[in-house]
Amino acid sequence: MARVSLALVPTAFVRKRGAWLRFRSGRILDVMTHTSVTAYAAPAPKAPLERTTIPRRELGAHDILIEIKYAGICHSDIHQVDNGWGEGIFPMVPGHEIAGVVAAVGSEVTRHQVGDRVGVGCMVDSCRECDNCKAGFEQHCTGTGPVMTYNATGRDGEPTYGGYSTHIVVTEDFAVRIPEGIALDVTAPLLCAGITVYSPLARWGAAPGKKVAVVGLGGLGHMAVQIARAKGAEVTVLSQSLRKKEDGLKLGASDYRATSDPATFEELANSFDLIINTVSADLDLGAYLGLLRTNGTLVQVGAPEQPLRTSPFALIQNNRAMAGSSIGGIPETQEMLDFCAAHGIGAQIEVIPAEEINDAYRRVQASDVRYRFVIDVSTM
Ligand code: NAP
Ligand code: ZN
Ligand code: ZN
Fold this sequence. Notes:
Elements (H helix, E strand, L loop, with lengths): L10 E6 L2 E6 L2 E6 L3 E6 L8 E6 L7 E10 L2 H7 L16 E8 L11 E4 L2 E3 L5 H4 L12 E2 L18 E5 L4 E2 L6 H4 L5 H11 L7 E5 L3 H12 L3 E6 L5 H7 L3 E4 L3 H6 L4 E6 L7 H5 L2 E9 L11 H5 L4 E4 L5 H13 L6 E4 L4 H9 L6 E5 L4
Parallel strand pairs: 13-14, 13-16, 14-15, 16-17, 17-18, 19-20
Antiparallel strand pairs: 1-2, 2-3, 4-5, 6-7, 6-11, 6-20, 7-8, 8-12, 9-10
Helix pairs in contact: 4-5, 4-10
């Protein structure tokens, strides 16, 4: 791995005898042991997360070291800790909604400087050479495949560990700039929840004159309501109950319906141009497809652990379409952050200390989240 060139950079890290030395203008500023950092990990599938230490790699020429300030808890973290999608790598340090500050840069880093506010989402690398990578769709990399932020193997052959930790080392291209005027804690959830709904709303044209329904008012859903509204669409929330109606309307919805009430499916039949389904559990999608207008599209972003089910006729009638969408590429993630900052959009969050991660998991599983738990990493 390339060494940091002390002459070229204002602040540089070099590892010596197991410790990292921080230099400025060729002088040692301090000695840090960032090769080993504090984290919260699940030691085995379904096991409670516990405090531990994990290794972080030495800074390469194109790497940055990020001091993580906040990490969001995504329902995907829980699916993976539970090994609900299979093939989990344990111990697992979840976390792909990372907001922090650049603490050091490698010798050839050009995109970020020490002190910059940056975010990292679901990916930390990809091949950079395939057509999808070149087009900014790194999540669909056909070369090496995207390297996910955790529960994956990096291009160096080592397991990746996520954002429930004090520091992370990533290649500069996979860190995005957090615009001025938006706080780090409410930004962290945008790195997954925000981009995952921004991308399909942009692609399927949420705009004035369009009717959009958001199924599930959780982490993704509450971002979808805000972003769809900011794009000018008319938004309806389809939630299990009316418990969160007031919040949904405040977030920008003009209608809010309970899916536990059969009348919802009759009254709203053939209404929507676009439905974004964020639900993390098994649903009868046929009932929701019936709410689409002719040529309307239901986009599946929720990733339940069971196969999807629907009647074929729900799709055939009205020429309806069903699609999926996976997070978003790096350029679109930057575009989403800039959009959210420009529109004053952030996540509605409950900040928790690290020791409450396991309680937060239980509450997310019980749909008792308003609307994202964010770990204050300083409590680690
Ligand atoms: P979340 O905060 O738990 O929100 C999910 C919402 O779904 C809940 O708040 C609840 O909303 C609704 N819900 C939960 N259980 C339900 C049930 N049994 N029946 C009907 N509705 C139910 O989760 P999230 O973090 O937003 O993630 C949502 C899903 O998206 C997860 O499966 C996650 O893995 C997936 N995801 C996918 C991508 C992607 O790239 N496609 C990216 C990130 C996350 P109400 O209380 O309003 O009904
Ligand atoms: Zn996520
Ligand atoms: Zn690629």
